[in-house]
Specification:
CATH architecture of the largest domain: 3-Layer(aba) Sandwich
Structural class: alpha/beta
Strand order of the largest sheet: 2-1-21-20-19
Low-confidence stretches: 17-26
């Protein structure tokens, strides 16, 4: 264990830059000074904090056993479970790649596009690897006429959104639907170009949605564009204004049926290659069943899925470590949701519940009580998620002793350097010396990870702010408190 922890410390020190010196002057004990810094936050904000040494000695604890909404700190649990459970993460992802096959005979053959949980399939014109075009090429090389094009995402049960996710997020890229057949991050990009003042701007996007363009070009001012659509509807309304002569605005929106979108996109690629498609664009979903897909309701193990027919072509995406890095560095919701479902395939049906069971097994090994945390998704978008600072701190300390701990640490944002911490802690003693996962949701801010204190010691911390009023962020006050703690130790 000592050797593993030394390896983990070495990884921290290699990432660390600069030196820590006192930055804030407050009177009283450390706890009093931290509480003074947090008291400046908007009234009503509720904080939870636990900071420990490597051996678990508490340096400061504020509401450390209360349960808080962790927001995207949830991704730490998902990615840690991936490192703890899945094998071959640094090898090409041979299990996850999308595949295509022909089903039927002659001119009555259907094209089946099957997803296996990969988050990175692309139809971009400049795609180099993991490209949908390669699957279209394979079909075009075999036949010039097909019937239906079918998107099959039945590897996972049909749980496109997690329990507790706010409905208003569904239309956005942050709340796009989850599917084993994922293409282009399950989002569409609209380019809005202003016209002459008083006229509608022009729109450029794939014709997946029917767009009602009610936006207006104005003589001056900034862009103020909004789009609205109802869940599971293909009609989108664009409103707002954009100034004449301004640069085009990019609007990104989610997709509610990713399997259908992927099949539709494959169809367009086939037709561009001279393949005649005589039928429809269809989907194959697997309905979620409590009895089959929720381990709390199953009377036994899930029924095994029948073997998949041989593929005409199958893609091999890059290693999952690349995706795990993106999940934590960028806080990518869709990719984290796919990861928890892939965890759920290890011993279950690929449901959210099976993925949570895999996380529970890891947390038990880490010595974290089940009552100290609860999850309803893998990304943190669910408002049902809860975790205590003590639970997450314990996970962080346990992970530091694991063979994969340094690799997991390398996926974390670095303060003032990259990811979601690129602009935080700049020009403070913790720039380049704090490695942590952020979290932001309605009325919620979170930050948990490791920091190198003034003394050179590595401290483990988990920090939450809930019930933050209005649109105000608590991150400024949390960062100030962490700098105080680092300067004192």
């Amino acid at each position: 264990m000592h050797a593993l922890r030394s390896h983990f410390l070495a990884a921290l020190l290699m990432l660390a830059i600069g030196a820590v010196s006192p930055a804030y002057a407050y009177q009283g004990s450390l706890r009093q000074r931290v509480e003074t810094a947090l008291a400046a936050a908007p009234p009503g904000a509720r904080f939870g904090l636990l900071v420990t040494t490597e051996d678990g000695r508490e340096l400061i604890a504020i509401n450390a056993d209360d349960r808080f909404m962790p927001a995207s700190n949830t991704k730490m649990l998902t990615t840690a479970a991936a490192f703890a459970t899945l094998s071959g993460l640094d090898q090409p992802d041979r299990a996850g790649g999308a595949a295509v096959r022909l089903e039927g005979n002659g001119r009555m053959a259907d094209v089946i596009l099957t997803g296996h949980g990969d988050a990175r399939l692309s139809s971009a014109p400049d795609c180099i690897t993991n490209c949908l075009a390669a699957l279209a090429d394979a079909v075009a090389a075999r036949t010039r006429r097909v019937r239906h094009v079918i998107g099959d995402d039945s590897l996972f049960p049909d749980q496109r959104w997690s329990p507790g996710m706010s409905w208003n997020n569904i239309q956005s890229r942050y709340g796009t639907a989850i599917s084993a057949l994922t293409l282009d991050d399950n989002e569409l990009v609209m380019r809005v170009t202003p016209g002459v003042a008083g006229e509608r701007p022009t729109l450029d996007m794939l014709p997946w949605y029917e767009v009602e363009n009610l936006a207006t070009t104005v003589a001056e001012g900034g862009a103020d564009l909004q789009f609205r659509r109802m869940p599971n509807r293909r009609t989108l309304r664009l409103t707002g204004t954009i100034a004449a002569g301004a640069e085009p605005e990019i609007v990104r929106m989610g997709i509610d049926d990713p399997a259908h979108f992927a099949a539709w996109r494959l169809r367009t690629l086939l037709e561009a290659r001279g393949v005649r498609v005589t039928g429809d664009t269809e989907v194959r979903h697997r309905p979620f069943s409590r009895d089959a897909d929720d381990p709390a309701h199953r009377s036994g193990p899930p029924m095994p899925r029948p073997p998949e027919p041989a593929a005409l072509a199958r893609l091999t995406p890059p290693p999952l470590t690349e995706d795990l890095t993106r999940i934590n560095k960028e806080s990518q919701n869709l990719h984290s949701e796919l990861m928890i479902r892939r965890l759920g395939l290890v011993t279950g049906s690929g449901s959210i519940e099976d993925g949570v069971a895999a996380i529970a097994a890891m947390m038990e090994r880490a010595g974290v009580p089940r009552t100290a945390w609860d999850l309803s998704d893998g990304s943190g978008m669910s408002t049902y998620n809860r975790a205590s600072p003590r639970a997450v701190n314990a996970l962080l300390r346990w992970a530091a002793t694991q063979p994969w701990g340094a690799a997991w640490l390398a996926t974390f944002p670095v303060a003032g350097v990259d990811g979601t911490l690129a602009r935080r802690f700049r020009d403070t003693p913790l720039q380049g010396r704090l490695f942590a996962k952020t979290g932001t949701l309605n009325a919620t801010n979170a930050l948990s990870g490791y920091m190198i204190a003034r003394s050179g010691r590595t401290l483990t911390f988990s920090f939450y702010a809930n019930d933050v009023p209005g649109d105000v962020s608590a991150t400024e006050f949390m960062d100030r408190a962490l700098n105080l703690i680092a300067a004192e130790n």
